[in-house]
Design brief:
This protein has 110 residues and is mostly helical. 52% of the residues lie in helices and 7% in strands.
Amino acid sequence: ACVLASARFALLSGGDVLGQAISLGIPVVAAPVNKDQPPRIAVYSRHGLCLTASPGAMAATVRDELSDLRMEEMRKAIRSMALCNGMDEALDQIDSLLEAAGGAGPPLTG
């Protein structure tokens, strides 16, 4: 997630990293590469959270549609939905469970 968090935009499939990128506020051009991905990408796209492309048209979509203005519109849409990356919270919860069980080790980090 650290590399992704510093990205200007991301070219991704419709897998798990798509949701992570969006929760980090990263504009995304997404192309489905598996049969379960088109519906997921469509939901994000319908809400203005990503652009959709076919795998063979990702470069053209970036060139023709992903302007600075469009990326800012996507970031605003993401902020308006109050999405967040829950990894740090999940790791804190796991750490608390380990401490309670007496198996505290070094702190978990994302």
